[in-house]
Amino acid sequence: MYAVPVIIGIIVIFGAAKRVPVFDCFTEGAKEGLKSVLSIAPSLIGLIFAVTMLDASGFFELLADALSPLCVSAGVPPQVVPLAVIRPVTGSGSFAVLSGIIDKYGADSLIGKTASVISGSTETTFYAITVYYGAVGIKKTRYTVPAALTADMIGMLTAVWSCAAFG
Amino acid sequence: MIVLSLVCAAVTGRMEQLSQAAAEGADKAVRLLISMTGSMCLWCGLMNTADKSGATRLLSRLSAPALTRLMPALKNNRAAMNAVSANLTANFLGLGNAATPLGIMAMKELQKTNTLRDAPDSSMIIFVVLNTASIQLIPSTIAALRQAAGSSSPYSILPCVWLSSALALL
Questions:
Q1: What is the pLDDT of residues A51-105, one digit of tens each?
Q2: Residue B28 and residue A162: Cβ atoms within 8 Å?
């Protein structure tokens, strides 16, 4: 856990060595940061609102049920399918699912390991897309979503297979 | 999405939870934004300092060979190149808090040269997909939940390799 302090230290020391007005630069950048937060706020609120509703409606459970035969034939343990479905959509939701799986099956069981690797090797895709495109006012996403989901899927399958092979 | 959730709730009989979620959703978003504001300001400030001192230029020179292959348009866009390499470095080190503000900065730089205005150009798409695939050396949050960090880190590299081939297809 040294990474963050070390990087901050390097930046500040490097700046001081090059005789840059470190604090002025910092406040200037921080102001930009504040503006960015404001510019992404509306789209982020809309998306999180919709995702929270979708989550509560039981949609993801239905989707996981529908997908599980397909996943099982690809070698995915049925217990991790709900996690795989929810992972690209909500970070906190999938974290809750992950702790549930680990509690139930143990961190070092194959299922627990697979679930951990899935969580570690993928991101909350929809959140990232909203934040990044929302920040610059882009409304059409072209092929971003299919491309990102393909990458997620490949990441998850890789996780499952590598755990099965080495786990 | 909202219509879909109404239909699902009707099917699963969870209307009560749904109305509760509707009340919570916006609230949750604002809380997230507030907690994000701090790290956003911190990292944008540090990034600006690093920019002025030339530290990011150094970093982007190091990562240039790999990056220009993935995003050829970056070659003529110094500022975007700096921000993109900083974001990917933060991702690589598992600094999720730092990666988001740096990524937003990178997107802003990329948008300046984007001719499509309200749709992303291909380097923006590649950049976002790279971020969603989350290339990490140390998945620190997950490692905190379980001690088996050693066993899970080697695999996180694999999606990155796969990703490039998935992108080549598109």
A1: 777 777 778 778 888 878 877 777 778 888 888 888 777 777 787 788 788 778 8
A2: no
Instruction: Using CB atoms, pick whichever of B2, B52, B156 lies closest to residue A25.
Output: B52
| Residue A99 belongs to domain spanning | 39-166
| In the predicted structure, residue B139 carries a pLDDT above the cut 60 | no
* Three-class DSSP labels, B93-155: CCCHHHHHHHHHHHHHHHHHCCCCCCCCCHHHHHHHHHHHCCCCCCCHHHHHHCCCHHHHHHH
Structural domain contains residue A17: no
Q: Does residue A141 carry a pLDDT above 60?
A: yes
Measured torsion, CA atoms of residues B1, A160, B93, B95, in degrees rounded to the nearest 10: 30
Domain ranges of chain B: 20-132
Residue A30 included in any domain? no
Q: State the smallest CA–CA distance between residue B144 and chain A in angstroms.
A: 11
Q: Is B1 helix (H, G, I), strand (E, B) or coil?
A: coil
**CA nearest to A36, candidates B115, B46, B48, B36:** B36
Q: A28-37, B4-13, B102-111: which has the minimum mean pLDDT?
A: B4-13
> Which of A14-23, B40-49, B139-148 is least confident?
B139-148
> For residue A6, is it within any domain?
no
Q: How far is CA A29 from the centre of its chain?
A: 26
B49 with A15: Cβ contact below 8 A: yes
Interchain pair B5, A59: CB under 8 A: yes
State the average pLDDT over residues A17-24: 83
Is A108 within a domain?
Answer: yes
Structural domain count, chain A? 1
> Which of B1, B17, B145 is facing A99, going by the closest CB pair?
B145
A132 → closest Cβ in B37, B128, B136: B128
- pLDDT score, position B130: 76
Residue B79 near chain A (CB below 8 Å)? no
Whole-complex ipTM: 0.73
CA A2 to chain centre: 23
